[in-house]
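Hi L.,

You mentioned the student needs an example of a multi-chain input paired with its predicted structure. This one should do, with 423 residues in total across all chains.
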Amino acid sequence: MSKQHISSYFISLILFLLLGTSIQAQNDSIISTANDSIKIKLKYGLRVGTDAGKLIRSFIDDDYSGFEVNADFRIKKTLYIAGELGIEEKTTINDYLDVTTSGAYLKAGIDYNLYKNWLDMDNMIYTGFRVGASAFSQDINSLTVYNTDQYWESQYSSNEVQTFNDLTAFWIELIVGMKVELFNNLYLGLNLQLRGLVSEVEPTNFENIFIPGFHKTFDSSAIGVGYGYTISYLIPLYKKDKN
Amino acid sequence: MKHYHTLAILFGIITIFSMGCEPDDICPETTATTPSLIIRLYDISNQSSKKNVFGLKAQGIGNDNPLTNYNVVTTDSIVLPLKTDDISTAYSLHKEYSYDDNGTPDDPTDDIIGGNEDIITLNYTTEEVYVSRACGYKTIFKNVTLTINSDGDNWIQAKESISDNQSVEDEQAAHFKLFH
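Structure written out for the whole complex:
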């Protein structure tokens, strides 16, 4: 488990380094050319999109379905208010448990654009944070008792569905990602999320195996990871001078 | 155009990273799961001292195989797995077990089985307790009673539970004493 966390920290680190160097490289080329006196206008508006990764996974993974609407709104040149609203259902199966989790989540926070755009280009390499909350339920579809001693071959098992309702969880999330304007007002993005669980309501004699919006929980720590591929469309509301 | 490269690299990294992300859902051996019943054997004439039984063979009633660890051994403690899908488990505890097929291995009718066999029955209620994602649930046993089936020639002469209303929730200590 912890090995996995270490590897995800490493990936975040590598990403930062990668992104960092490319920002530097771009900066060098900008300064020499962009110094003329034409006024450059920047688009401000509401950008609305969906997580294509969740849609694709819903198609290819029988045990998962999810849908997310995400949005951001530019409040300053480099600052955006951002949020996600989604639903997820996931069935987790191993030899001893078959559990379905379903519920909704809401995340809200800030994105900060680190990328210096050339002229009126509108791309982002950003970092930000979210506060996340989820309300969900879990069903144990079936269970088989774990016994290291297999002298008696059959172990107790139950196919009676047990439902645990009114479960909630709160977490904070660090996010790094990028959004690129592919066509006019259409953006493609991807991001990585590192989450820390703050609190959760757990069922009695069970635990939260999956939390919508937070994803898989780990026994050893309160850290979670995730990623998103986003497609979004900017509804331009007004323009402002670049400087 | 440079950011398309970065985008591609990032895409690749995320894909690899998400594929390599299936965690090992294996229940560690060190985790305490469904406990077995532990019996200690004591001397009937000196009830505070443990006493070995010789040539013990333990076999579950209804099971074709003897317990692997108790196939004719000398011991002063017996660990018996209880059925998790039933509320009763019976064991044959066969002391000084010997077996002679009388020269005809295919004919069990003339086999000579030596020693003294006693049968004990354990009755209980079960309860499922959550352990972890990988281990799922374990069964613990409550209100466990031990009965020595009387056969007129019992080598087990008395029994005693360690506590009133005996339960079997872990394997930290013995649950029953048998005197012989």
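You could point out the following to them. Chain A touches chain B through 49 residues (CB under 8 Å). The first strand of chain A starts at residue 41 and ends at 51.

Best wishes,
N.
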